[in-house]
Predict the 3D structure of the following.
Amino acid sequence: MIHVIKTCWAAALLCMALAPAARADDYQLSHNQRISCSRGLAPGKLNTATCKSYTYLFNTRTSEYFRCQVSLALTRDNKEVINVQTDGGCTKKPRIFETDGHYDFDATETEPPNTNSFFGPGGYSIWAADMAAQKIRGCITISSGLGSDISKCLDMTFQ
């Protein structure tokens, strides 16, 4: 019986010693989701509606993030739904800060192509703040129109 108690104490001490090393990442969903839909007419009086929505998932410890998008396309004629297609996934993006910490995030995107979007589907902005210091970094990413994205970040100054 004493051998079992000693083994349990040893296991508990080992778990307490390893707990800081096994610190789990914390994730936060952005607070700024959007949805946009468009409609189109196809040959033979078919109507197609396509809706897209996106969000961002942030690792609040490492400052890495994922851009996630889901879309649904519905095709119908005057009487019935002919086809429904869905697509989506998340794409990993680089860290905003070089070191681990405790960060808070938010993000927003430009509207679909319009007069404010010169090179294609627009872009997005990411704001990240160090929750333990007066440190904020703003990043903007836009499409170059040549198949690649241009992304720049700037540390904010406080006056």
About this structure: The radius of gyration is 23 Å.
